[in-house]
Specification:
Blueprint (H helix, E strand, L loop, with lengths): L6 E5 L4 H12 L3 E8 L6 H12 L4 E6 L22 H5 L10 H16 L3 E3 L15 H11 L4 H4 L6 E3 L7 H10 L24 H12 L18
Parallel strand pairs: 1-2, 1-4, 2-3, 4-5
């Protein structure tokens, strides 16, 4: 009798990276659980995308966590600040942009840690990336290593020796094009996903924010067509 597959907790935003991460966890044979956060971001379109993705992948339990990070503000995603548009690749690659949400991944991983302890799981998956990203400090390898070390000091199951938590970051050293290629190999339907920071009322992506530009660049370099709708499409200019 073969052992039952182990549960994994996957942070699922409904975007390209988290959806590809979910596909990788499934391909590796884990039972899928997903966490999505309605944290006061500008729109709920990405929440619906996460629900579509979870259903398509047959996630056993998909929890949408309500919280209100707008109470603190400080980010173009949770405050009345302008979302940067039409930036060059050089501009995107340098500095921490105003779309950074303070401590977001730390908050999300803390919830995943609690979920894992109750689900008797040891494996957390997060789609952070250190190459084609917008400079967020909580996407770096050293951050993930530090959180994993803390996590194994933080739960009853860990200190009693019943749990050894691992944070899987399968996209950490991949370009956006490589991420998309991997997802396509695994059969990901990227039409289900959403990445834009400031979509139109009908849900069309703006095509101009950093997230859209990195997504479009990734699909172009992967030699694939992005299946979602855009209000405007402009590949980021070379510096």
């Amino acid at each position: 009798m073969s052992p039952q597959p182990k549960p994994a907790i996957v942070l699922l935003s409904g975007g390209v990276d988290s959806t590809t991460t979910l596909a990788i966890a499934k391909q590796q044979g884990f039972r899928l659980n997903a966490l999505t956060f309605h944290y006061g971001q500008r729109h709920a379109i990405e929440i619906e995308a996460a629900r579509r993705v979870a259903q398509a992948f047959g996630v056993e339990r998909h929890v949408v966590v309500p919280m209100e990070l707008r109470l603190f503000g400080g980010s173009a995603l949770t405050d009345e600040l302008a979302v940067p548009k039409s930036r060059t690749l050089e501009e995107i690659a340098h500095g921490i942009p105003v779309t950074y949400v303070p401590a977001r991944n730390t908050i999300f991983l803390a919830y995943a840690l609690a979920f894992a302890e109750l689900a008797e799981g040891e494996d957390l998956f997060i789609g952070v990336n250190a190459l084609d990203y917008s400079g967020y400090p909580d996407c770096r390898p050293e951050y993930i290593r530090a959180f994993e070390a803390m996590a194994n000091l933080a739960t009853k199951a860990a200190v009693e020796g019943r749990q050894r938590l691992r944070i899987h970051t399968p996209l950490m050293h991949l370009s956006k094009a490589q991420i998309i290629q991997r997802g396509l190999e695994l059969g990901v339907n990227y039409a289900l996903t959403h990445s834009c920071y400031e979509p139109a009322p009908d849900g069309a992506a703006c095509g101009l924010c950093d997230s859209c530009l990195l997504r479009l660049k990734g699909f172009a370099e992967a030699g694939a067509t992005d299946p979602i709708a855009y209000s405007a499409i402009m590949l980021p200019p070379r510096p």
